[in-house]
Amino acid sequence: MVSLNVIDAVATYYGVSASLISEANPLMAPFDALSILLIKIFLSILLFILVLRIPKLSDSKTVRNLLIVANVCYLGVFSLHVYWITMI
Fold first, then answer.
1. CA dihedral over 53, 64, 24, 27, signed as positive or negative
2. For a Cys-Cys bond, which of 16, 52, 72, 77 suits 33, CB 3.0-4.6 Å?
3. Residue 58 has pLDDT above 70, yes or no
4. Which pLDDT score is estimated for 30?
């Protein structure tokens, strides 16, 4: 999930800074391309650290299942990005 988020951040940065796309996430839309990139990478690193550093999180079946659901959702978003990029 971290790698998909970083790829999404870089793709979003490129698309927004080149005026090819606009950020669809209403929470991120007010920010400029560089801020979006930095926020997304920061959140990816934070998630990575939390899962690795807090033993109860990495051992929790609930957290593991939530990460699987989040990964599937993010893979869907990533697939849409790939499709849209090939349309440009």
1. negative
2. 16
3. no
4. 92
